[in-house]
Amino acid sequence: MKFILNYIRKEEWSPYVAGILLGVVGVLAVLLSNSLLGASGAFENIAGLIGKAVAPQAFDNMYFNFIMPPGITWGVILLVGVFFGGMLGAFSSSTFKWRLVSDDQWKKVFGPQVWKRWVLAFLGAIVLEYGAGIAGGCTSGLAISGGMLLAPAAFLFIGGMFASGILTAMVVYRKGY
Amino acid sequence: MSNYLIAGFLGVFFGFSLNKAGLTKYHKIVDVFRFTDMAVLKFMMTALVVAMIGLYGLRGLGLIVFPSVPSTYIVGNVIGGLIFGIGMALTGY
Q: N or C end of chain A: which has fewer CB within 10 A?
């Protein structure tokens, strides 16, 4: 019992243990709600909700009417849970802290400027969400949730993701790769 | 309503597992693309294998019906993945 409690308090688990937890959560999502885990879709649901209110004509298209209908969906609530779950994880290991630039490795590669991290995070996230929109999901919604149903789309996506991710890392890190 | 409660509850465990695997950190995500830390892949593949066994087992027992499987459109899936990877390696999300 003490061993388990101590393990929960560890900052970093073995990825295999954390992976088992996520796998069980993925099964429960199907068993209890007949839904798939995902993250990027929720942002599109919210974007659609805001878009329909602000510029209804621009958002009156196939994509937001049928493929990603706006609303507070199951995925949006899931994402709220993810936020608090991540926080709980940080609290459990007493590593919770407010930061503007979260990562030392980032500072080494891109420099210590805070604005750079935020601008690049914002632009990078646009690229990422756009890609997810085309592919039909993100790492969780397509690669993991699709993969566990053995959907070919998931494995095509993982291939693409690693190909361009490796190339981008090579460009960013150059000699340090 | 109960569906929303389930979503929130499962979300907490989802976020918790991401945090504990370290996937909320930039260096963990980008290092898998540099082949210096394979935690992302270990985490993803473990989750996949566990969920596959669980889901196919439960379906075999007739306890669940699969939700709509993400659709396959080869060019879209690959190009989407290629664009996604650039954003992922830049931001570490």
A: N
